[in-house]
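Summary for the steering committee. The consortium agreed at its last meeting that each partner would contribute one worked example illustrating the joint modelling workflow. Our contribution is presented below. We chose a case with several input lines so that the handling of multiple components could be demonstrated. No manual editing was applied between input and output; the record is shown as generated.
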Amino acid sequence: MKTLKILTVLALLIVISAFGFQSVFNDEDSNSSAEGYQIGDVAEDFSLKNIDGKMVSLADFKKAKGFIVIFTTNHCPYAKAYESRIIALDKKFKSKGFPVIAINPNDPQKNETDSFENMQIRAKQKGFTFPYLLDEGQKVYPKYGATKTPHVYILEKESNKNIVRYIGAIDDNYQDENAVKERFVEKAITALLKNEEVKPKTTKAIGCSIR
Amino acid sequence: MRELKMQFLLPIFFCLLFLACKNEGEKTTDKQQDKIESVNFNGFKKNLNKNDNKLYVINFWATWCKPCVEEMPYLLRLEEEEEVELILVSLDLPKMKNSQLKPFLKKRGINSKVILLDDPNSNQWIPKVNPDWDGAIPATLIYKNDTSKFIARPFANYDELLTEVKKIM
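What follows is the complete predicted structure of the assembly.
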């Protein structure tokens, strides 16, 4: 009787651990969001108003090898926690051909903090070194399939098309920049610069729903 | 004379009653706020697959998240009117526990079970809550034993929430 109990427990453990491993392996390279861009898709260009009042398109960056498109916003604490890391990414990779393009996808009427004026103020306070665009009319983020802020799309230019190479988080710690172990975006760009495969291609992170 | 006495005593009586109630309310919320546990995903995951015939409503939220706060009254009403175990899983940054989370619960007199999920490597644990979830909040898991439904959007009204719950019941 006792052995039977032990055996049952053992069997249960094996089943549970199998499920556990399965979910760990499933993490990578699975992109379950049905809408929006998937890895390998061509991202459409856009023309959105920057905080300096000028319109910005991807086509304006003639020398760029690609882009770090980041949907981010003013009000979201997770996005705020990433602001200085986004500036660092731009500093590191703009000169290497991958500038940051930040887009605020939220409707300012739903949250005054996300208004164009407040975007200008925030960018000045933090010293943004990259365009910070307003997705006026909220037409761009649904095409990408962005659901939250911050949400990153790395694009690589290939015969004048922008191919989606990475979708997800900036790194593996949304709370504390000093405790980061894996820098997903940095890793992806470094791979692209060496003509290597990006790995992982998709990651997930807690974020503020786009409204 | 007697009427006068009543006139005098009644307001005092009500004042006392009011104070007593108020104190009582504050006491329970204080108690609740002391009970907020901060756990990492390993400590939290037992809440996702209990097999005890109870219906669980696990809501992922944060105090500053507007759509989360907007749907919260529906969740609280559900907990009051139906046989459900509600767990509010706060994803507030841990440093906000005392400055935001506790005052928020106190102000609204929320006595439901609240857990602060403090696990920064969300790329690891988000798919374990549900493979279709990409991490945007609010998100709600409703389950009873082996039947579950994951809803990665806010509830527009109480009936919408109730309908989902009835499907699992």
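Chain B touches chain A through 29 residues (CB under 8 Å). The two ends of chain B are 61 Å apart (CA to CA).
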